[in-house]
From TrEMBL:
Residue span, GmrSD restriction endonucleases N-terminal domain: 7-233
Pfam name, any one: GmrSD_N
Protein name: DUF262 domain-containing protein
Domain of life where this protein originates: Bacteria
Residue stretches making up the GmrSD restriction endonucleases C-terminal domain: 448-596
Length: 638
């Protein structure tokens, strides 16, 4: 058929977004493109040039019981084109709301009846020209928060990624329209309702509409795997041989499950969780991957093998078993377990637990998050959770001490899967953790590994190159707080990414440190001077954490200036500021204390004094300079 404009489109049609559709996905980029398209529609000989807006695919449907009183119209499901229709409906509503008299002198309430909703005689019931299916979780939000019907009750848990996008579109157009005068508003209204052209196609009744939907949505902004999977499961539900009432129940369960998932993943609007990351994480528990976890790409392939017309063609896993055929119970079991993980997945990413935050600071990969989520899912006992997580934190930290490596951290996902499938228990995993933590520590390997960190020519050197240094300094911060019998935090793990590592004696530009640095290298062979300076400046005792950009402002200041600023800083800084001077003896003294603290973090680690000297300074000529070991001097700190 030929293209028609919006007025013709809305004249005798009511549009509904069916439950297998994705939610509203347009963001500022797509909204801006539509606004620019409208702005650039030219007038030719006083008439607006037609602007082709694309094809809308529709499936004729029956009205919901609440809408059945409206006559002389047909109801249609939007199979393809809902993003455009949703956006245009929001734009029209905001434009009509901002305009006292509509285009061509029609009263605003008549225009609202044409494009937004038709009320009944009492005005208490409304049929919206464009809306979601009555069962959709976003139905109430669209009416209450977008079309501003205060008589609609806003359901609990209404916030999700899609409702956020709806609200953003409303704000976007409200701001744009607020800058227009009345003439510009009327012109915009005319462009929307007469210049935009739509090619309308109705899907034949004998076509499989879910299959058509999936094909259509290979275009434009891609559907997430989670969105496509919902459609696939509804499609498969309709093909079951179960009674219609069973299929209706299962379809509702799918919608409820996806509503729960979307709500949980978007519960923190500042950190909306990735849908396909979540799907692949759950699948890593539900099926055994070749790798430790399913990547998002492999998860998409696997989940559509599980839920295709003939899944029994595909392997269940590496055991040689095949996937089970599609049944009510297979779909039901999967959606229940997928949705029950969603609130736990949110909890992992938004935990108030310092222990969980420390673990994710050490390793935030999917394997670790899956393990954390599984323990939270399977155990409500705080003591059990704490024991398991403390063991994990110890393992992760040990793995990050140079010269110590006790396990492949991807094993955590396998542990989680074993517990999930009842092939092991949390207690059994605790035993494996403790066995790993009892691994013998080879101190010569630690000394050799820290020494190797000083060999790099470019970038960070020495202890400054140690990947877990900042984490260790945060742990030392907590130790110093407890030692001082303080209860108030100066910096916490929440400040980790706003905190930098500072060299107390700076790495270069020693205008204020010439005497300190030069006195250290006096008497050394010329070939040894550069390396001795590198070790002194980049050893453990000369490094601390600083917050709020203090690093750049203090970098090359004198000890007097730094000491004054450190007095009001972190417990690390306060501890350093307690010294009247800062030179080789104080650096060595602090480094020794820090290595002794490291011993408390790693069972079986016991440094001798000689081990500590070699770990901190390693070369004899540097050790001798630090401890002033000459025939005429006594051993010990200067």
């Amino acid at each position: 058929m030929s293209a028609i404009n919006l007025t013709e489109l809305f004249n005798t049609k009511i549009f509904r977004i069916p439950d297998y559709q994705r939610g509203y996905a347009w963001e500022d980029k797509q909204l801006g493109e539509l606004w620019d398209d409208l702005d650039e529609i030219p007038a030719v000989n006083g008439e607006l040039k037609k602007h082709y807006t694309g094809t809308i695919f529709l499936e004729e449907t029956k009205p919901a019981e609440t809408d059945s009183w409206l006559s002389n119209v047909k109801f249609f499901n939007v199979v393809d084109g809902q993003q455009r229709l949703t956006t245009i409906s929001i734009l029209l509503y905001e434009l009509l709301k901002a305009t006292e008299i509509g285009y061509a002198e029609k009263k605003k309430d008549k225009l609202i009846e044409t494009f937004i909703y038709e009320p009944n005689m009492s005005g208490e019931s409304k049929v919206y020209k464009f809306s979601y299916a009555f069962t959709d979780k976003n139905y109430n939000f669209l009416h209450h928060s977008i079309f501003e019907d205060n008589k609609v009750v806003l359901n609990q848990g209404h916030l999700n990624h899609y409702t956020k996008n709806l609200a953003n579109a409303k704000s976007f157009f409200r701001e744009k329209i607020s800058k227009l005068d009345d003439e510009q508003k009327n012109l915009l209204f005319k462009k929307i309702t007469t210049a935009l052209q739509f090619d309308i196609r109705t899907i034949e009744k004998d076509l499989d509409v879910q299959a058509v939907f999936e094909t259509m949505n290979n275009r434009g902004k891609p559907l997430s795997t989670l969105e496509k999977l919902k459609n696939r499961l509804i499609y498969l539900t309709e093909k079951l041989t179960n009674p219609d009432e069973d299929k209706k129940v299962l379809r509702k369960k799918i919608n409820d499950a996806w509503g729960k998932i979307y709500t949980c993943l978007a519960q923190n609007p500042e950190q909306i969780l990735d849908e396909d990351m979540f799907l692949s994480a759950h699948l890593s528990l539900y099926r055994k991957p070749v790798e430790s976890t399913f990547s998002e790409k492999v998860a998409e392939e696997k989940v559509f093998q599980m839920f295709c017309n003939k899944p029994e063609k595909y392997d269940l896993d590496e055991s040689g078993k095949k996937e089970e055929p599609i049944t009510y119970n297979k779909i039901d079991d999967y959606i229940l377990k997928l949705s029950e993980l969603a609130p736990i997945w949110y909890q992992v990413h938004n935990s108030n637990s310092k222990l969980i935050k420390r673990i994710l600071t050490l390793d935030s990969r999917k394997d670790i998050k899956i393990f954390l989520a599984l323990i939270l899912l399977k155990s409500n006992d705080i003591l059990t959770q704490t024991k398991t997580f403390e063991n994990l934190e110890k393992i992760l930290f040990r793995n990050r001490v140079p010269g110590i490596w006790i396990m492949d951290e991807r094993t955590t996902a396998s542990w989680a899967r074993d517990i999930y499938n009842e092939e092991d228990t949390i207690e059994g995993i605790n035993k494996k953790q403790e066995d790993l933590l009892n691994t013998v520590v080879a101190i010569p390997n630690i000394i050799k590994s820290f020494k190797s960190l000083f060999t790099y020519e470019r970038g960070a050197k020495g202890f400054h190159r140690w990947g877990a240094l900042k984490y260790f300094l945060f742990e030392y911060e907590e130790y110093l707080k407890q030692k001082a019998k303080e209860t108030n935090d100066k910096v916490t793990i929440d400040d980790f990414y706003e905190t930098t590592i500072e060299h107390i004696i700076p790495q270069q530009f020693w205008d204020n440190w010439q005497d300190t640095v030069n006195s250290f290298t006096d008497g050394l062979a010329a070939d040894d001077i550069e390396q001795a300076r590198k070790v002194l400046i980049n050893t453990l005792g000369n490094l601390t954490i600083l917050k709020n950009g203090k690093n750049s402002s203090l970098g090359n200041k004198s000890w007097k200036d730094k000491k004054e600023r450190f007095r009001t800083g972190s417990y690390n800084e306060i501890d350093i500021s307690s010294h009247d001077t800062w030179a080789k003896d104080k650096i060595a003294e602090r480094g020794i204390k820090m290595l002794r603290f490291l011993e408390t973090k790693i069972s079986g680690l016991n440094f001798t004094e000689d081990d500590i000297e070699k770990t901190l300074f390693y070369e004899d000529y540097i050790i001798n300079k630090i401890y002033d070991r000459s025939p005429a001097a006594n051993s010990g700190l200067v």
